[in-house]
Write a structure and sequence with these properties.
It is built from two helices and four strands. It is an alpha+beta fold and 65 residues long. It has a single domain, classed as Alpha-Beta Plaits (2-Layer Sandwich). The strands form two sheets. Strands 1-4 form a two-stranded antiparallel ribbon. Strands 2-3 form a two-stranded antiparallel sheet.
Length: 65
């Protein structure tokens, strides 16, 4: 599974961090998403899929479902 983020679309809501804190973080200055692990293990799949679904800006993309 591979994750990418469109930082231009990201609104800094932080839903991804709440869903998968091991995979996502936010920049301190503006809250834009940071992907800590662009290819996380299967143990993180549920959280990553939730993050993609709840992102209000649809800024996250998951490949390899």
């Amino acid at each position: 599974m591979n994750i990418s983020a469109d930082t231009e679309k990201c609104c800094g809501a932080g839903q991804c961090v709440l869903a998968a804190p091991e995979v996502f973080d936010q920049r301190e200055d503006d809250g834009v998403v940071i992907i800590l692990d662009p290819s996380p293990g299967e143990e993180h799949r549920a959280g990553v899929e939730e993050a993609v679904q709840v992102c209000p800006a649809a800024a996250l993309t998951l490949e390899g479902r």
